[in-house]
Automatic annotation (TrEMBL):
The keyword Transmembrane applies. Gene3D superfamilies: MFS general substrate transporter like domains. It comes from Caulobacter sp. 602-2. This is MFS transporter. One of its GO terms (cellular component) is membrane. PROSITE patterns: MFS, SUGAR_TRANSPORT_1. Its main location: membrane. Keywords: Membrane, Transmembrane, Transmembrane helix. SUPFAM superfamilies: MFS general substrate transporter (SSF103473). Residues 218-411 form the Major facilitator superfamily (MFS) profile domain. The chain crosses the membrane at residues 20-43, 63-82, 94-113, 119-141, 153-177, 183-201, 231-250, 270-289, 301-320, 326-351, 363-383, 389-408. It is found in: Membrane. GO terms for molecular function: transmembrane transporter activity.
């Protein structure tokens, strides 16, 4: 074991990784996100309506809950398994390649499902496969990228979410019509983006006398104060994002001035405009904030992103008339881009055990999974006490501020 608890020597700690490596890593992350974002946002609802036309909402909800639980457990498990892998191909590469093949097969099984139970089984397999691909891919950043380049690498990786959303909107939704062509496009795009990086990835060999690293699912990372601080911050900010995303359309649709301000524009079209604006803001801010965090430090950038997210959500409350929502969404998108990119680099820095990066990244990912449940629960709580959507968005703004403030504590 070399210095810093890293299981493999980092031969590029001084010179850093090449731009080609960083770009390839970003494209591979985009491919990983394309393997599931189009499915979650469009293909799953369409498939649920096909296999259960009279109970599509209930079927989709049940399958989504089981899928989310599977994903949270699978990320930790496959991260731990890749931590313990030894061989000529490295720790991460065998799982990335195997995960991609399993993802392609699982997507085919989902497309062939004819009943809700068949769809549920295929979705569980898909979540296992996607995390077998993504968990080791995410661990490449703390494994192989030196600290002075983590922000740049995170900027490339941060393009994955907005890129996958644009792929969903422009290709899967608008360009393609048949279900078969949509699933085929997802598999093809994932292959084109993931395989070049995975096939050329070279990991330093383990030292000759390196101890065997058995898979470990222990929660020892939470004993580290910095890890706990970043986890709590991420949970709060991601909960704010989940609340905002979940209820934005309803908020926009309930605005009485939309018809007069934008004659002939449906709430759906206005919602699409807001999503496009936030995605473009997220792309631009994410690309710039990663390298900037290398110079200014991680915490200031993450705090800035959280504050901007809170400001974007709060602006919906203080400027509800059009074009207030558009300006709010642009600020939100910029904040989300700054936060997600710099937070990814910060997470890579606070992992406490270099031999368990895959497992500990999975534990950190629980914050994101938990926010997907905590957000709706907070929304239900506000509604049950007689509050309306203004209370929901106020809760979101306060959660984002609290998440940003959590990083100001000394650890």
């Amino acid at each position: 074991m070399d210095q810093g608890g890293r299981p493999f020597p980092d031969t590029d700690a001084n010179t850093g990784r090449s731009r080609l490596f960083l770009a390839g890593y970003g494209l591979a992350n985009a491919g990983a996100f394309i393997s599931f974002i189009p499915f979650l946002t469009l293909l799953a609802p369409l498939k649920a309506a096909e296999v259960a036309p009279h109970a599509r909402d209930l079927t989709l909800s049940q399958i989504s809950i089981v899928g989310a639980i599977t994903a949270a457990i699978a990320h930790i498990a496959f991260g731990a398994l890749s931590d313990a892998t030894r061989g000529r191909l490295g720790r991460r590469r065998p799982w990335i390649l195997g995960g991609w093949a399993a993802t392609a097969l699982s997507l085919a099984l989902v497309s062939l499902a004819q009943t809700p139970w068949q769809m549920l089984g295929a979705v569980v397999l898909l979540q296992l496969a996607v995390n077998a691909l993504y968990a080791p891919l995410a661990a490449v950043l703390p494994d192989l990228v030196p600290d002075h380049q983590k922000g740049a690498a995170a900027a490339w990786a941060g393009l994955a979410l907005p890129a996958s959303k644009l792929f969903t909107a422009l290709v899967v939704s608008a360009l393609l019509v048949s279900a078969a062509s949509r699933y085929a496009a997802v598999v093809a795009a994932t292959a084109l983006l993931v395989l070049p990086f995975a096939l050329t990835l070279r990991e330093p060999p383990a030292p000759a006398r390196a101890p065997i690293a058995w898979p470990s699912l222990r929660l020892t990372a939470f004993a580290d104060g910095r890890f706990r601080m970043v986890f709590v911050s991420r949970l709060l900010v991601e909960t704010a994002v989940a609340l905002h995303t979940l209820y934005l359309f309803f908020y926009l649709k309930d605005r009485g001035d939309l018809a007069s301000r934008l004659p002939g524009v449906t709430p759906e079209a206005a919602f699409g405009l807001l999503l496009t604006a936030s995605t473009l803001g997220m792309l631009a801010a994410g690309a710039a904030s990663g390298p900037l965090s290398d110079r200014l430090g991680r915490r200031p950038m993450v705090v800035t992103g959280g504050v901007l997210i809170a400001a974007g959500v709060a602006l919906l409350l203080f400027a509800p008339e059009w074009p207030g929502p558009l300006m709010a969404q642009i600020i939100f998108g910029i904040g989300h881009g700054v936060y997600s990119t710099s937070n990814l680099a910060l997470v890579a820095e606070v992992l406490p055990d270099g031999a368990r990066n895959g497992r500990d990244l999975g534990l950190m990912n629980v914050a994101v999974a938990a926010s997907q449940a905590l957000g709706p629960l907070l929304g239900i709580a506000v509604a049950s006490t007689g509050g309306d959507l203004r209370g929901v968005f106020m809760a979101a703004a306060l959660a984002a501020l609290a998440g940003a403030g959590a990083l100001l504590t000394r650890r």
